[in-house]
Give the backbone structure.
Amino acid sequence: MSASMNGHEQTVLVTGGCGFLGRALVGLILQRTRWAVRVLALPHEAVPAGWGERVQILRGDITRADDVERAVKGCSHVFHLAALVGDAGSYAAHDRVTVGGTAHVFESALRHQAIVVLTTSICAYGDAIQHSVCAEDTPLGRAQGPYGKAKQGQEALAWRFNAQGGQVCVVRPANIVGPGSGPWLLDAAHALRQRLPALIGGGQGHAALTVVDNVADFLLLAAQNPAAYGQAFNIHDDLPVTWVRYFNDLAVLMGAPLPRSIPRWLAYLGASVVEPLFRRLFQRQRPPVTREALNLIAWDSRFPTGKARALGWAPRVSYGQMLLALAKDIQARGL
């Protein structure tokens, strides 16, 4: 790493820095570099108490171009994580926040010559997940919900930015697990406690899990490695873990009943009825079942990670270590 890359004078921006992955990334930057960190946080968003003076908090919103411009100015790198997360909300809301906010980030990054590390998702592959091994050059399939469609929109903006001479790395994490995970701890714990079906077709598919700290590791590596610019990367931990194993492990940690399963056809039938109703009448609530969620848990996930490993990345936190951390988090939250 060059002196300028490791110097105090370098400032990097993390949008979404107060979120699940963002907190892990900011902590890693503080631990491994001498960079100053700027976080764009929503006006009333809680900020971790331990960040200290190396983290500058700017209050604003990625949907406002002026807020983004103020945040990007003076930064060498932008880690863009801010987005609507999950499968609740309307297509219009995801487009306005996630795609519109990303457009503001790239516009400012182009003006200020900032390098962008964009976090999207394996959901960008759409229904290609159901019938393909999804290497990074796999054509994106039909989006399965507003979240995946927005991720595809973000990536289209990234490649346009790249064509305009900007430097960008697109990172597609799989299913991010760890203490505080919304879908894979909090939502999953609720389903287990309520005895709702958590598995589809027995849950025998590969779960493509990745520990949040391992994703943060790759984001930092990609920012520091010019070989990553102009490229997309799948990230997960290559664990031999199926959905039934993960949900069983989670149930044991919680002292909850083991997960129930329903057939895939029945789950998709339920989604076809319930999801449109919620999109129309209860837009702020997460539908009980969605095609987006089924696209992740009802199929065998196959996302090669050879490109990331060739860059020098390898998972640092093991599945067993993650389960120990989950156990502490479950106890602390009373789950």
About this structure: Residues 91-112 form the longest helix (22 residues). Residues 14 and 39 are 5 Å apart (CA to CA). Confidence is low (pLDDT under 50) at residues 1-7. The radius of gyration is 19 Å.
